Every structure is written in structure tokens, then in C-alpha cells.
Amino acid sequence: MQADGFEDPHEDALKYMTRYALPYKYNPNDAQYGLSDDDYALYTRYYDSAAEVVALLQDQGAMTWTYGRNFGPHFDQVQIDYIEEYEENVPKTHHTLHPALEDGNPGGGGDMIGGCTAWAEANGIGVHVNHRVDQVILNSAGEVIGVEVVVTDPAAAAATPATDATAEASPVASTQTLSIRARKGVIFGTGGFSRNADMMRHLMPSPYYGGCGAPTNEGDLLRISAALGAKLGNLHNVWRNEGIFEQAVADTGAYNCAWFLSGDSFFIVNKHGKRFVNEKRNYQDRPMAHQDWDPNFGDGTSRLGFVIYDQRVQDSWGGAFPWLADPTTAPYIISGNTIEELAAAIEERVESLLDVTGNVHLHVDFAGNLAAEVEKFNEYARTGLDLDFSRGSLQYDLTIPFGPSNPDSP
What is the pTM of this model? Predict the structure, then answer.
């Protein structure tokens, strides 16, 4: 940003981060914007060091950076920020960085890992896979001086036949434990805990139906740091995503991440048959709408959402998840020739899933409300103005989603 002449003022950046992450604490008139001393120091340190780290990685040859871009027909444009409408968000673009591919286009996480791995190997730094830190080693003063690592031999594990004694745990012969002393210190760069069902159910405010992280993201660092008495915080502010419910309960380890909901003639309704969110908002914020609580009946009104889409979306965007190229291959796709027929089919499916939904039933007015929502949505489409959720009036809604996957689509 600096090289390209874009300013990212310290005051605006911290205001934006505070308002977005801790909106209930945000005070633009306070010297620390409502943050505690610890949080203010943390946010400030992040702002001060981020540019230095990014520059260091590029200067060392580990990474070449490029700006994140929008998708589909807007791929030539620099990606706009989340919640771009915040007045504190200055500037509203050029914050997102990606590793650059050889052709200059943005790469992904795998490319970032590849660049760092290549640099490490070229500079004599070993990269040891299948080495999992189990705990840290302390000296008599309570200082961290090393780690205990469990080393797994995948070949030995695969070669050992499962028996009643080994079915629930890896065979002893396939693992060993090493104690490794640190020369200066121990730095963790670890995943989260989205694959630890127990942690997720006890630490998250929302229901747990699986995650998008690597299978090894089981919260090792939380367990290790908690044993040391380290301070934990902001665990509820996770990297969120929506997914297909029936696919999640069938296999929590399957890929099930609905990042961007592309297309136009679709919307999402809750168990009352009513829309409850701007369906084009980013994948981080959109899932929060599912936590809507009904104090009259003691349940989440929008815990389950039902995506209503038509043949135009199927023809134009089929193949871009969650839209499938062939919807007949997925058991979670429910179809109907009329709105009434579709509503009845949805109710039948919901009733068949009571054992895994927390006994969710559709409201008695679901079919009528759904029909009314279709009429209202069609009117919003004709006028170009969503009076309920402002869909399409925000820049992110217009520039981020993919264009049609079918090049012949209008």
C-alpha cells in the first residue's frame, strides 16, 4: 500500500478493527477507542508490525505479494474490504494480500505454504511433517525451554492391521516421542480447533456442525497454553462459514464451505418462511444471522436456513458450490414445480431430520410466508431496491460474487 501511494492511517485502522471486532466496546471519542490496555497494545502492535513482516517475507524471497481481487466479471478490480460502509474503513480497498503466482495472478494458502517451505529448505531450515507438539518443557523457573513432539510414521501405521486393541488408537510401533530443546524460544504458528467437537461445543456461542479447517486443527495450542496459565480471549470471534446442513451431519469432516453465494434469483428463509439476512454479505458475517434468538419459544428462529433458488440460477451458476452441476445427484436438493409443492417437500424433509436438528419444525405459516417472500423478492428485483436487507446496494454485494459459470448465460 505504501509503495503504491495508499495511506492506511493508524487512527482509522484501529477504529475500524475495534468497531468490527468489539462493537459493544467501541468509543470513537476515547483515546483507546474503548479498548482495554492489553487489547489496545495488541491492536497497535499488529498495525505497527504487519507491514514490516510482509516486506520482510518479500525481501527475503519467500513470497511475492499481490493484491486480492474480486471474482467473476470483476476479477480485474482490487478486492473491497468487509463492511466497506464503515466510515472508519480508510481506504476501503488494497488491504487484502495474496501470494502472487508466476503469471501475476493471486494465489492461495497452498502457494503461501509452498513459498515459505521452499525458502526454509533453501536456507537449511528443516520442515518436519508428522511431528505434533504434545506439550512444552519448562525449567525450574517456569520458563519454556523446549517441546515434546509425538512423531508419527504413516507407513508403519498403515501397515499395522487394526484389531480390537488398536482400532481406537494408533499402534505404539508407529509413533515415538522426542524431547527437543529450544535455543532461544518456542514460537507456535498453529491452526484452530474447528475439528475438536468438544471444544467447539463448549467455547462457541453457535451450534457445531463441523468446520473447514485441516483435520489436525484440534486445539493443541489451547490445551498446551491453558496448562501454562496463559491468557485466552476472543475465542468466540471465529472464522465463520455456512455449509449444507445435511452434508454436515452426514460427515463433519467433508468439505462443506459456502464462501460466496453467487447468482441472483435466490434467497434464504428461516423456519417461518421469511428472509433473515442479506444473502450477498461476506462469509464471515453472514452466518451470524443464524444466531437470531426467539425469546418467546426459546429457540433459534434462523438456526436452519433454506435456500430458495430457481432454474435460472441452476442454468447459469450450476457447478459453483453450493449450486451443483447436476442437482439430482445430491440428496439435500429439494425441488418442486410450484411454491406450494416446494414448501410441502421442505416440511417433509425437515420432519424426517428431527433427530439431528434439535427437533426443529417449520412454523405453521411457512408455506404462506414463503409465497409472500417470493412475491416481495420479485418486486425488489424489478425495482432494484431491497427494502428489507439492502442487498445489492452495498459495493461488496456487487463486486465479490462470481459471474455465471455458464458463458452463454445472460
Answer: 0.89
401 or 236: which carries more pLDDT confidence?
236
Q: Give the model confidence (pLDDT) of 258-299 as tens digits.
A: 888 889 999 999 999 999 999 999 999 999 999 988 999 888
Q: Is residue 237 part of a domain?
A: no
Report the pLDDT averaged over residues 323-350: 95
Same domain, 302 and 386: yes
Range of the domain at 327: 245-399
255: CATH: 3.90.700.10
The tens digit of pLDDT for each residue in 133-164 reads: 999 999 999 999 999 999 988 776 565 554 44
Residue 409 lies in a domain: no
Whether residue 15 is contained in a domain is answered as yes
Q: What pLDDT is recorded for position 389?
A: 97
Which of the four pLDDT bands, split at 50, 70 and 90, describes residue 383?
very high
CA distance 89 to 93: 9
Tell me, yes or no, whether 204 and 333 share the same domain: no
Give the separation between CA 373 and CA 279, rounded to whole angstroms.
14
Mean pLDDT, the chain, rounded, equals 89
Instruction: Identify whether 232 is part of a domain.
Output: no
